[in-house]
Amino acid sequence: MEVLSNAGRYTPPDPGQDGRYTEELRVPDLSVGTYCLPAGGVDTQRPHTEDEVYVVVSGRARLTADSGTVEVGPGAVVFVPAGEGHRFTDIAEDLTVLVFFGPAEYTRR
């Protein structure tokens, strides 16, 4: 067992950066990270080669994907399949999201 004590905590991006992603755990079949975007920020991520599950810890935004757009806030859980274009838009409040990749991020390059 491992406790991920820093997972889900908002950490502002460094100056000049759009957001902050911190990997909290990596094993072959799973990785977990915390993705933070400031209110009014821009999400510049690109589609991933792994499936993703987002769990919104705090903040409010829209998640816009190839398959549609949804409003997200605390407690929202969204699945995005590998290869689907997506990004957070209209970030109304500092956004903190737990991100689960299966298998671990970048293992299907």
TrEMBL record:
Residues 1-22 are annotated as: Disordered. Pfam families: Cupin_2 (PF07883). InterPro entries: Cupin_2, RmlC-like_jellyroll, RmlC_Cupin_sf. SUPFAM superfamilies: RmlC-like cupins. Residues 35-94 form the Cupin type-2 domain. This is Cupin domain-containing protein.
